[in-house]
Amino acid sequence: MVEEMPGLDVEVDQFMLHGKPLGKLKLTADNHEGAWDAKLDIDNDDGKLSGEGKWRASPTQSDTQLKFLLNAKSIEKLLARLGYPDTMRRGHATLEGNLLWNGTPFALDYPSLSGTLNVDAGNGQFNKLEPGVGRLLGILSLQSLPRRITLDFRDIFSEGFAFDSITGQVKLNRGVMDTQNLLIQGPAAKVMMSGSVSLPQETQNLKVRVQPAIGDSLAVGTMLANPAAGAIVWLTQKILRDPIDQAFAFEYAVTGTWVDPKVTKLTGPPQNGENQDKPN
Question: Beta-strand (E) ranges in 174-270?
């Protein structure tokens, strides 16, 4: 019971969790009015996690609240440290969250998990992921799209989508993650995602808009041949918010399980010989 738990002031130079070296740990905790208030810092060469939380024990139902900030200097190296090597290349990220769930601080309960997450990542690339590895990363990498639909830009996602930035907010309610503004900006395409992902059920119901970045390439090519005309194309792109790219955009519904996603094209230019899943 939390009433019996003492205050803590712990420092560990080499903290290991399930055999994974997480770096230096600082943990302080106080037992205050039946709740265990704690502050946590885990620091290593690849990133730092800072958080504060509260655990209130109950004979019928305990609850945990956690507010945290994760700064990843290298997404690639931090994921390898956590047991997911070769899932990403390069990259840096900030992940900020405010979460609560039923149960102890030591085990997330997905059916009750609620709160918010804010992500801001940059300058990375998804590797070609093996099935079952980093399933949530598999959703972000969009590698399910080329397996289901033949696209002119198939190689963008099949071999690992490079990104300049990933930004967005996710709201969680009883294990269901919902986003309306997740934006992945890459040199080859812009991807906008909205919809929901269920952690307990491992399912998804997403709308994905893929806007290939061809306008700037066209402007550069035109500028080399005719600087004045190229400048006009480039200015038109920026003033009218990428009309060329939007004209060649595709929109998909991604549903079903993480293991066997169903992809249906909603809108986009017609593709000769296109193969797509039919709606159930």
Answer: 176-185, 189-198, 203-212, 250-257, 261-267
**Which residue type, as a one-letter code, is found at position 116?**
T
Distances from the Cα of 264 to the Cα of 126, 176, 196, 267, angstroms: 23, 22, 16, 9
- What values do phi and psi take at 84, rounded to 5? -125, 70
Distance CA 142, CA 158 (A): 8
188: which DSSP letter?
S
Length of the chain: 280
Question: For residues 100 and 122, what is the distance between their CA atoms, to the nearest angstrom?
Answer: 27
Six token digits for residue 5: 């738990």
Residue 234 token pair:
């480039």
Region class of 259: left (phi > 0), else alpha (psi between -120 and 50), else beta: alpha
What pLDDT digit, counting tens, does each position of 135-159 carry?
A: 677 677 776 665 544 444 455 565 6
Q: Model pTM greater than 0.85? A: no
pLDDT digits (tens, 9 = 90+) for 103-134: 888 788 999 999 999 999 999 998 866 554 46
